[in-house]
TrEMBL record:
Molecular function terms from GO: cytoskeletal anchor activity
Annotated Protein inscuteable homologue LGN-binding domain residues: 4-48
Pfam families: Insc_C, INSC_LBD
One cellular-component annotation, GO: apical cortex
Protein inscuteable homologue C-terminal domain boundaries: 61-513
Top-rank lineage group of the source organism: Eukaryota
Entry's Gene Ontology BP terms: apical protein localization; asymmetric cell division; establishment of mitotic spindle orientation; regulation of asymmetric cell division
InterPro entries: ARM-like, ARM-type_fold, Armadillo, Insc_C, INSC_LBD, INSC_LBD_sf, Inscuteable
Entry-linked Gene3D superfamilies: Inscuteable LGN-binding domain, Leucine-rich Repeat Variant
Designated name of the protein: INSC protein
């Protein structure tokens, strides 16, 4: 499950309430403090948190239980029976607390859920009693024979727990989708869509549940009704999250979602925020990392309209975030069809992207530059692209991208910088088959920079992919302009086989003199 990664003290502070509740429940044997069914008290309890908060509480409790079960298995393997028993008691308390907490904010549980709750509670009690008996036994042979039974009981507890959580989350997804479909109130619908988005952020498994319950169908219904235009941005953001899984893609295909997205992108009456979120969905469903591509057939039918709208969004973007979403969608589209690159060329996209890079407020992060250079790299396979790059002073930009460095030290940003360096070198290598581009690159001192990246691991953040791309670009430029290299560089970086030069550079020790 997706949880915020924080330092241990902050995590302890967050979990403190759950842990103290657990101890209270242990003492009270999971009985409520008051036996009176006071409706006002129930109302106060249920209104303390929103649906989203309640789900977060449930997921945190579930994460704790899951972690404890894993630790029990580890302690059991080491025959640490005292720890096994104490942790079993704790799991028992957490399970009861979780069921009680959930019952305070749920509107009603199904018979199947009641049965699973009873099975889980009974099996947890049996598990606790079992480990207590093991604790009282000193005979090693008896403990050895009991260990397999304890393992079996632990497996059953984990199985019941998993089934219950699955059922609870499915019911919550159903409730939220029912609210969206049946409510005529914009406020309730907005709240339900927001809660659905939060649920989808918890990981791929939750997205699968939402998709299986028809979430994609329900959300596209909103996007097809003008009266709900104010909900479009949040709804599209939720769709982008759900469509990271195959089940979401299947649903998108069934409701002709790509046509709907194309309509939204090409409708100039929509806000920039709506266009940006539609671009985010396009970026998600065209991701080259996805292994399922059955939706692409219908995408190709609408590709020209979509690409045209995305280029316009890049050109008119009022912020870096909008440009990033639009350019990411374009970058992904260029991976799976060369026709997209031809369309981009016709739309003067190279000039538009190069012009955007001169606006530091728009192309303001390595992530945005990564998208731009990805598009240029994929377009550089076209012969006509070289003249466009020259006209837009693109070689200068590619040279600058070879110096891309992370300013924060953030791992994700550092990885983006590596991709920028790699793809700019790849683009230079491809474009340098044109003598005019090669000449411009040599005049801008690209060769010394490529040599530096090859010879200095820190310059390329120890990236092998950057090294290979730089060696390829250097060899292409050396073939066009051999006078730009010293003999030692030629002998080590150009003359040998690429693999030999690669091994030489990866084994090279930097001089700190």
């Amino acid at each position: 499950m997706h949880l915020i990664q924080v330092d241990s003290v902050q995590r302890w502070m967050e979990d403190l309430k759950l842990m103290t509740d657990c101890e209270c429940m242990c003492i009270l044997q999971s009985k409520p403090i008051s036996i009176e069914k006071d409706e006002q008290n129930e109302l106060i309890l249920s209104s303390q948190y929103s649906t989203c908060d309640n789900l977060q509480l449930l997921l945190k409790r579930a994460w704790i239980i899951s972690t404890e079960l894993t630790r029990i298995a580890q302690k059991l393997e080491k025959n640490r029976w005292q720890r096994v028993h104490s942790m079993t008691v704790r799991v028992n308390c957490h399970v009861r607390s979780m069921i009680n907490e959930y019952s305070t904010f749920t509107r009603g549980s199904s018979e199947q859920m009641h049965q699973l709750e009873k099975l889980l509670v009974d099996k947890c009690s049996e598990f606790t009693a079992f480990t207590e008996r093991c604790l009282q036994t000193e005979d090693e042979e008896i403990l050895k024979s009991m260990k397999s039974c304890v393992n079996e009981t632990l497996t059953t507890v984990a199985q019941y727990f998993g089934q219950l959580i699955e059922l609870v989350l499915t019911q919550e997804a159903q409730n939220l989708l029912r609210q969206i479909e049946l409510s005529g109130s914009l406020y309730i619908m907005e709240s339900a869509v927001s809660s659905l988005f939060s649920l989808a952020q918890e990981g791929a498994h939750l997205c699968r549940i939402i998709a299986k319950e028809g979430g994609v169908v329900v959300l596209f219904k909103i996007c097809r009704q003008d009266c709900f235009r104010c909900l479009y941005p949040q709804t599209l953001r939720t769709l982008a999250s759900i469509c990271c899984v195959e089940e979401g893609m299947h649903q998108l295909e069934k409701v002709d979602g790509i046509l709907c997205l194309a309509d939204i992108l090409t409708d100039t009456s929509h806000s920039e925020a709506t266009h940006a979120e539609a671009a985010a969905v396009i970026a998600q469903i065209t991701s080259p990392h996805l292994t399922f591509t059955q939706h692409l057939s219908s995408f190709l039918e609408n590709m020209e309209e979509i690409v045209t709208a995305l280029v316009k969004l890049c050109q008119e973007a009022s912020s870096g975030e909008v440009f990033l979403l639009a350019s990411a969608a374009l970058a992904n589209i260029t991976f799976f069809d060369t026709m997209a690159c031809e369309i981009l060329l016709q739309l003067n996209a190279v000039q538009i992207l190069l012009a955007a890079c001169s606006h530091k407020r728009i192309v303001d992060t390595p992530y945005s530059r990564d998208q731009v250079v990805t598009i240029l790299a994929n377009m550089s396979v076209l012969d006509q692209c070289a003249s466009e790059i020259i006209q837009g002073n693109g070689v200068q930009l590619l040279m600058e991208m070879l110096f891309e460095k992370s300013s924060s030290g953030n791992p994700a940003e550092a990885a983006a910088c590596e991709r920028v360096q790699q793809k700019s070198a790849v683009t230079l290598a491809r474009l340098s088959r044109d003598p005019e581009v090669a000449d411009a690159a040599v005049k801008l001192s690209c060769i010394p920079r490529l040599i530096k990246l090859c010879r200095s691991p820190t310059e390329r953040n120890n990236s092998d992919s950057v090294l290979v791309a730089c060696l390829a670009a250097l060899r292409r430029l050396a073939a066009m302009s051999p006078d730009g290299l010293e003999d030692s560089d030629f002998q080590q970086l150009v003359k040998p086989r690429l693999v030999d030069s690669f091994l030489l550079c990866t084994n090279m020790e930097e001089s700190f003199v």
